[in-house]
Amino acid sequence: MQHQQQERINDFINWAKSNGASIDSRISFKYTEESGITAIFKNNDNGSNTAIATTTTTNQLPLVIKIPLSLIAKPDDAYAQFGLQKTEMDPVTIMKFYVCYLTSIESIPGGNDKGSKFVPYVKLLPGFREIGSPLTFSPNELESLQGSNLYTGTKLKLKQLLKEYLENYHLIQSESQKRAPKYDELNDLELFEIMLKETTKTKGDALNWLSFGKFVWAHLILTSPKKPSVLVWITSRI
Q1: Looking at the record's lineage, which domain of life comes first (predicted)?
Q2: What is the arithmetic mean of pLDDT over 185-204?
């Protein structure tokens, strides 16, 4: 697992650099089971390696990573992919569906699908349960939070996401399959189990990228504090 993930990181870095990204030579990226993906700073003064905690080195030279806008998935990409106008769906919502869609692309970067260039990035994204959000908890796990604001907030957020998904599903799905699955008729355990199945790929099994489980996963990816969402939304409007 660790070796495979490190290979994905290396592929991602090579892809980014070959498409115009610039990464400070003092920065490297390493995967460990304990910490996940970590940025490592190599101190040129003494050759030691440390996890990056500040934005400057000991000699005050800034650490710089530059990413061209062409490597950032934007709402404009999503509207174009689904053939929708900006007035038809909220940009945050359509980006969730777009991230779901990107997981279905198996072609190599540079393929016919415009979204195929994001394949190396998508392969690095954590799985549904790996994110660790209460939205991915089983009903039993969530019960351990009962009595807290997090418990009520999680249940409310899941209902809000289901409402958002069901209200917009028909705009994404093909004409012949516009009726959304009846997720709102499932109890908590049934909903969790189907979400887990929808986000867990087994050998020889293809996942439905337009499922609610995928939508919740995409929501968590996009709302992660590590994702430059402000930049994404602003550049979309330039």
Answers
A1: Eukaryota
A2: 87
